[in-house]
What does this fold into?
Amino acid sequence: MITIQGLSKQYDGHAALRDVNLDVPDGSVTAIIGPSGSGKTTLLRLLDLLEQPDAGSIVFDGAEAPATEAARLSMRRRIGIVFQNPVAFSGSVLDNVSYGLRVRGHDRRSIRESVRRALETVDLAGYESRSARTLSGGEIQRVALARTMVTEPRLLLLDEPTANLDPISTARVEELIGRVIAELQTTVVMATHDMAQGQRLADRIGVLIGGSMLQVGNPSEVFNLPSSVHVARFVGVENLLEGTVESGEAGMVNVRVGAHLVEGVSELEPGVPVIACVRPEEVVLALTQAPTSARNAFPGVITATASMGPLVRVTVDCGFPLVALVTARSAQELGLSSGAQVSASFKATGVHIVTR
Ligand code: ADP
Ligand code: MG
It folds into this structure.
């Protein structure tokens, strides 16, 4: 278990991390998600004991991060980090992947065997004698993974492991990371600005925005029940309807949004200023205004459509703008295009309310 308490770090008087608290249970995979500049790399560098915090502490299995240089180095040997841009390698793939084992004094035979297994895991079997300079970006990322993996770290840190890769290499590297995690059975903390990647790979997500850890939870909690409008925006809740609680009963509230009432899940009292969060995939569009079980049904006019592969993003003016994500097929069947009159509806249970 790693316990991060009150961690703060400043650079030139500017806070990169502000009072960050986070528990990392043994064997968990935690994704730190947040936009660029939010402090993700700084947090990983502190966990890697490369830098000292200005305040707060990191406790590894009950032991404070060590004060002496020798103790720090010995602790660092149990931590593996894959940086966002793995250094331009020279030498052979074997030289690179075996590095950590050579500095740890392993013998040649066991090194070759460990390297062989690690390369197999990252789908680079037989690459030992290849010159590292001739590798593609995706291959370099995989060599970097293998290089860290052979040292069997107790804590594996991954900084934006697919940030510079094309979508196909990204899918491949993600799959291999999943494999490495399963094989090492170690504790993993990874940084990513890609919320979906966090959802795919992690069992816990910490949302770091502006240096503050705004929410920690399992992926579905963070995705469906964001704790604030900042988190909601980052996890892709496109409809953030500003309003005020008008009435409430039995865990449901009516929120006044302009001339409309939106029903959602909340215990908040009347008068509280709120934002009703509605994911675009929760919004259903229909041409008629036939009766629907959805309490939240609003007539409107389509103002824009944008094709997104198998989905179409439709913006409807209901008196407030509402974005819906529908399949390309249903968009075609319904003839959804700008100017069309529609009824937009969403379930009250799909409306998550945060205070503003
Ligand atoms: P992220 O990884 O989320 O993109 P970083 O941790 O790299 O964010 O950076 C957080 C903030 O700290 C940024 O404003 C960045 O400019 C600043 N920062 C990070 N490292 C340094 C440094 N070595 N010197 C000065 N400022 C830094
Ligand atoms: Mg970074």
User: Anything to note?
Assistant: The pocket of magnesium ion (ligand 2) is lined by residues 40-41, 84, 159-160, 191 (CB under 6 Å). The first strand starts at residue 2 and ends at 11.
